[in-house]
Amino acid sequence: MTSADRKGTTTGRHLEQAILKLLDHRGPTATICPSDAARAVYAGNGDGDGWRDLMEPARRAARRLVTAGEVEITQGGRTVDPAAARGPIRIRRARRGTGPADGASE
């Protein structure tokens, strides 16, 4: 593993942790934007708009958390397939017992 790979892996983990921490500090049905996590992780790395470079890594971190069953990605208030999501997304804690695997829909 190269140092760039390690840095990307570390940043990805920090983004995952930031997503979960931000959601922990909000209500059970609240959502966050991937930019919230990007800004939280970038905050210690300087001023300016550098957090924007973390937007796609933040979206990837959210997709990993979907796979782990921790969060859902939404658009327009509806859960969407992370692979099909285009444009602005929101992230919320996974709703237990209401996912597609349970046969329920929103």
Brief overview:
It is built from 3 helices and 4 strands; from the N terminus they run αβααβββ. It has 106 residues and is an alpha+beta fold. Residues 76-106 are annotated as: Disordered.
Per-chain topology:
Elements: H1 3-24, E1 31-32, H2 34-42, H3 55-67, E2 71-75, E3 78-79, E4 90-93
Antiparallel strand pairs: 1-4, 2-3, 2-4
CATH superfamily: Winged helix-like DNA-binding domain superfamily/Winged helix DNA-binding domain
- Rg of Cα set: 14 Å
CATH architectural designation:
Orthogonal Bundle
* CATH domain fold name: Arc Repressor Mutant, subunit A
Largest sheet, strands/sense/barrel: 4 strands, antiparallel
Query: Can you count the helices?
Result: 3
SSE order, one letter for each helix or strand: HEHHEEE
Shape: globular
> How helix-rich are the residues, as a percent range?
40-55%
* Total domain modules: 1
Sheet/helix structural class: alpha+beta
Please tally the β strands and state the result: 4
Organism: Streptomyces yangpuensis
Pfam families: DUF3253 (PF11625)
Protein name: DUF3253 domain-containing protein
InterPro entries: DUF3253 (IPR021660), WH-like_DNA-bd_sf (IPR036388), WH_DNA-bd_sf (IPR036390)
